[in-house]
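When time allows, look over one protein, given below as sequence and tokens. The question is which stretches look regular and which look disordered:
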Amino acid sequence: MTLWSSLSLCAQKKRVKYDTLQLSKNTTIILKDARLTFDKDTTLILPDTVFYKVNGNFYQRLHGKWSQRKLTKELFNLLFSLPSDDFKIDSTQLVKSENPFKDYNGKIIGEIKLIKLKALGTRMDKPEERPKSFVQKTGNTINFNTRERVILNNLLFSSGDIVDPLVISDNERILRELPYIKDARIYLSPRADNPNIVDVEIITKDVLALSFDIEARDFDSGILRVNHKNIFGSGHEIDNRFAVDNSSDQKFSYQARYKVPNIKRSFISFEANYANTVNKDFSNIKLSREFISPKIKFAGGIEITNQRLRFRELSNIISDDEYDIQTINERYDYQDFWLARAFPLNLKDPILNDRTRLILSGRVSNIKFSLRPEVDIDLNQQFHNRTLSITSIGISQRRYFKDQLIFGYGRTEDIPYGYQIELLGGYEWAEFGNRYFLGGKAGRGGYIGNLGYLLGGFSLESFLKNKIFEQGVFKVDFRFFSSLIDLNQWKFRQFINFNYTFGIDRFPNEYIDIRDKNGIRGLGSNTLRGTQRFLLNIETVSFTPFEAADFKLAIFGFYDLGMVNDGKRHIFREKAQSGIGVGFRIRNDNLTFKAIEIRLAYYPDAPIGIPMTDLDLSGNSGFNFSDFLITRPSPSIFR
């Protein structure tokens, strides 16, 4: 394909620019989400509002120089991958997920063709390209590519069905959410001999599904984690954790999780968990089905657990060096059953009607202890035997935009917009007195013009016993990220998270804190806990152009502010704790490893006994969006 620059035309007072593209026969071009193939030489004249980039960037020029010698060419293929510019999404022109398929609404689905790309050395925008370097080829050889039937089992449509743009866009998102798939795209192409029939092309790109993590504490102890997200290409997952501690009563410990997602195209998942450690014996099985699409009518789950735990609980905390430790032993059996049904609301707007559901759900859970500390009506309430029955009614509306460079490092991300309203009610039978449960929650999210995306929500719930509210919580959350700011090849986003949580007559051993991941990152203090919390997290992220062997670099700066107290006085009368710092994250979206994060932080008002600086090397698993999904009705976890 040859590209030369633009022809300018004048229309009234506005000067409109055009780009001319000359395409040879059988050339495929991707414009936004349209995939076009031309059966003869073609010239396209595109207005400058159509997003694309000329492949003349740094990596292309570097590739031209390094390719002159065989050795340097092989080294380039090992270290670098050419950015997929034609495939990138323009964040200033957000596209609703269903838009690319609207022109084919009502047509008949013909042949379904799968193109399954290997994890290394392949590109979604050029699926015909093959891995070049020895390392890429070797990595793909030892990695089992996803089997064809696994992809087909995750489809919501079949040959002969009528095209529904929302179903197709949902399916694209469902494929991208699979832990062994980096990205997925669906293209519809009308047949030349019968335009009422459209053939479907599905392109998926795998990840290297095997990952491991080694933690060496000292010469006598260590932990090895080995995880596989796609065993033999079947889509099954297994997580293993091996631990050795020669100073412990039990020198060897083992934990495992095995998951079978989407059994027989039912979207029912099976999961089994097992653990045998010095502090825990645990066995658990569960079956579950969620409302992964508004087209799903029923959801539900069954969970059965037997667990023995031994843990340490801190009490009478005076400072980070002065506190009491109580060792607690418990054993219990737990059963949980829930079922939900979704109903359409018959709204006038066909798209809103297709995306909006009234959902009724019910749940029964039971926990019975065979080993526990001493209990009484006002003592160790979390160890009381109890059965909870809870129902909910709610309305959920879910739609999606497609974007990039938010929590991922280049893969397509599905951004939900819509709302959720849910009312809950229930009754708990307990050995020291029964009580009611009442609650409500609501949330809404979407893009605010060109400023960015805002997600907000609140919840208020409590148990009611003898006309007194207890063990309740009021919570407000906001999450914002800005539109992508493009400065040459550097991309910037601003992230702001806010949380306010207030516990209503919580039990004595229930509290929230602002430690590390719960508030101020890297700050560890046993004294920073209570039942009322205010949090503000601000982070600026730069997605840099630096890339080597598909590892991409992001630099970030952050400011965290938090306050916590016992809820008996105004939160803003409390001394604020804060943290400020910088760091960088390295991630390869072709791998299932967490992002590597190195962070340097300073805490100007750290409690006595806590260092004022922190240098941390850790894994960062990123974040997930709340997509207004109404699922198993449950009291909120107080944390």
Summary: Residues 451 and 482 are 6 Å apart (CA to CA). The longest helix spans residues 165-176.
